[in-house]
Amino acid sequence: MAAGSRSTGRNPGPQPRTEAQLQPPPEGWIGKVFGPLLLAVRFLSVIPLPAAGAASGMGIGRAASYFPVAGFILGGIAGVAGLVLELLLPVPAAAALFSLFVLFMITGGLHLDGLADTWDAFGAGPDREKRMRILSDSRIGPLGAAALVFVVGLDWSILASLPSSFRFWSLAAAAGAGRWAAVLIAGSYSPAKESGLGSYFIKAVSPRRMVWATAVVLALSWLAVPVAGPAILAAAGIVAYGVGHRLARGFGGMTGDLLGTVIELTQLAFLAAAAIFYHSGMIGAW
Q1: Where are the domains of the chain?
Q2: 176 near 217, Cβ under 8 Å?
Q3: 3-state SS of the chain: helix, strand, coil percent to 5?
Q4: Which end of the chain has the least Cβ crowding within 10 Å, N or C?
């Protein structure tokens, strides 16, 4: 899609965190023990937590190991919000939609914004420079809007089809899997541009952090969906690598927006796989 056909008059979308916004660490043992986790949550959300130090490569690299936990926490918060609403209004579709809304709010919509920008950029044709220009434009065009409706609509319909307890655990685990996928893909490809916090993060992820993040997300997936969790995660991981590889080829590397796309599509893949397992009877009643 040509840049000129993109919509105008829209307020700039969610802005990525800057290095200055990552606050100094809390002092004492809390900062030493929970500092990387606090930074991971702060990096992936708009929750004003004290972060684990200035945004140094070492700090963000250490935090990458905790991305699955941070995602699990964010998804869990959204899941609890849905459970509370369902107690007051016993309509599963409304509870599922409210969970997604809460997740959108606490993450600032950054990953969905990246998804929309990525879809618009792909519509620009094979010219990489043109794609990169559109990717940097915060405005959303028709293709981006369609991608948002499609992905959020699938998330909603899948969650609404699940019983409340399984919906909660699935959303928490899917959010954790999506953030794990960002670590996996960031560590597998070079940045497509030198500027931006996304590029900074990509450079900071090491193979060691990828291994730790994978071990953590495997444990979380088993906790959320005993026995079947790792198999569901494997299905989502295949989608993550396929999407990541295609994006890296199309843009000459990774950016923060592209990682947002990986997060959203991996999260969707995890939810879809979990629903398939549940509705096929491969997972017991919850």
Answers
A1: 26-279
A2: yes
A3: 70, 0, 30
A4: C
Q: How far is CA 144 from CA 16, 68, 117, 147, 189, in A?
A: 18, 26, 6, 5, 24
Over the stretch 6-62, which tens digit does the pLDDT of each residue have? 444 444 444 445 444 444 445 555 666 688 888 899 889 999 876 544 444 557 778
Q: Residue 121: which H helix or E strand, with range?
A: helix 110-122
Phi, psi (deg, nearest 5) at residue 282:
-80, -10
User: Tell me, what amino acid is at 75?
Assistant: G
CA 207/CA 212 separation, integer angstroms:
9
The CA-CA-CA angle for residues 48, 28, 204, to 5°, reads 60
Closest alpha carbon to 136 in 192, 179, 185, 188: 192
Query: Chain-centre distance of CA 58, in angstroms?
Result: 21
Which amino acid makes up residue 89?
Answer: L
Measured distance CA(12)–CA(114) in Å, rounded: 13
Q: What is the pLDDT of residue 284?
A: 62
Q: Which two tokens stand for residue 232?
A: 């569901």
Q: Which residues of 230-264 are buried (b: 16+ CB within 10 A; e: fewer)?
A: bebbebbbebbbebbeebbebbbbbbbbbbbbbbb
Is the pLDDT at 256 greater than 80? The verdict is yes
